[in-house]
Amino acid sequence: MCVLLLVLLQISISSSKMIIVRGAPEKSTSYPTQLYTGLNYTTCTSKCASSDNCILSYSNSSGYCLLYAVGDIILVRNDQDIFSSGNESVSFKILNSPAKCADRAEDMLLGITNEYNKNNIESYEIQVSEIAGISYYSINYEYTFTDGCNNWLNPTPTCQNCNKTMFSFSALPSANESTSLIVTSWNDCLFYCYSNPTCFMVYIKIFPTCKVVEYGNTTGWTYREAQMPVGNSFLYMGVKYVLDRISCQFNISSLYTGQTYNPDSKINYMQFQGSTTGSTVSLIFYPW
Ligand SMILES: *[C@@H]1O[C@H](CO)[C@@H](O)[C@H](O)[C@H]1NC(C)=O
Ligand SMILES: *[C@@H]1O[C@H](CO)[C@@H](O)[C@H](O)[C@H]1NC(C)=O
Ligand SMILES: *[C@@H]1O[C@H](CO)[C@@H](O)[C@H](O)[C@H]1NC(C)=O
Ligand SMILES: *[C@@H]1O[C@H](CO)[C@@H](O)[C@H](O)[C@H]1NC(C)=O
Ligand SMILES: *[C@@H]1O[C@H](CO)[C@@H](O)[C@H](O)[C@H]1NC(C)=O
Ligand SMILES: *[C@@H]1O[C@H](CO)[C@@H](O)[C@H](O)[C@H]1NC(C)=O
Ligand SMILES: *[C@@H]1O[C@H](CO)[C@@H](O)[C@H](O)[C@H]1NC(C)=O
């Protein structure tokens, strides 16, 4: 069947449209920043439609509603015409929809360049892809940074064309000293750290406060399995990695383990050493 019978509702706010499909965000690359409970599908979708930074909302049949800001989500499971047990659905915000309604939902959603032009993102486009036999919608961003290393939600390090990168995951940080920054998305928080030479780590527990931790001001973190948030408490962590051009093959689990790296030379600390016990990473910084 080539016709996607999944446009359940369209809400138009100026030229943008919300296109609703069945599916759910892939948890490991998903960083929602607003959670509502007791909202039906229509109201949840409207919350996203009327919020400038929101590009996607997720709801299920128990009234659970999440809003995602631009840059904070890259993969959505595509349930096609199957209802998941929670009747999960995702509403995409499409900024540049075709002038007239298309016959097929796909034509309203896929392959359209949505001009965004803020929060370090120029545009985004939605495509369908298959990973290990499962169909996904992927949200592909065009970033203003062009060093090739800014797809930070992707758990695989990309090291080819850049000298530093960020890693993003769910964890409980250990850090006493931090400064606070008000952000519009998790992606903003990551970009701040990436751009600021003294920043080593950022985290968000309560949106919209991004906590910024300098080199030397953390003793590590404890990984947590990615999960849908409960209450308005999130545990998102990002760490900077200044590439040594040897460990590009390392993934996030092995990156900070038993190795010593030279961070940005502008900083007070020459190197740090990581060690792992279970899901806890402990760091020791060595001053110049
Ligand atoms: C969704 O909730 C809103 C606000 O409570 C209500 O006005 C609307 O009728 C509800 N829609 C459906 C389909 O239940
Ligand atoms: C399932 O979800 C659709 C929206 O995606 C909604 O219209 C329908 O009422 C839901 N059914 C149940 C049983 O919640
Ligand atoms: C809706 O999602 C929330 C959060 O993941 C979950 O706790 C709840 O059980 C889900 N509801 C259904 C009906 O699956
Ligand atoms: C990356 O590092 C190399 C070697 O230090 C340097 O030559 C190059 O200019 C750097 N590239 C960027 C984009 O900073
Ligand atoms: C890092 O910790 C030192 C004290 O150990 C403190 O002086 C400095 O302000 C801290 N930096 C930030 C950004 O919190
Ligand atoms: C955090 O504070 C405790 C005592 O309150 C101290 O022992 C520890 O060294 C501090 N850690 C950092 C990273 O500043
Ligand atoms: C991460 O890398 C290590 C060593 O390179 C490897 O043993 C491990 O299987 C990798 N883990 C994943 C999840 O790919």
Automatic annotation (TrEMBL):
<protein>
    <submittedName>
        <fullName>PAN-3 domain-containing protein</fullName>
    </submittedName>
</protein>
<feature type="domain" description="PAN-3">
    <location>
        <begin position="1"/>
        <end position="145"/>
    </location>
</feature>
<keyword id="KW-0732">Signal</keyword>
<feature type="signal peptide">
    <location>
        <begin position="1"/>
        <end position="16"/>
    </location>
</feature>
<dbReference type="InterPro" id="IPR006583">
    <property type="entry name" value="PAN-3_domain"/>
</dbReference>
<dbReference type="Pfam" id="PF08277">
    <property type="entry name" value="PAN_3"/>
</dbReference>
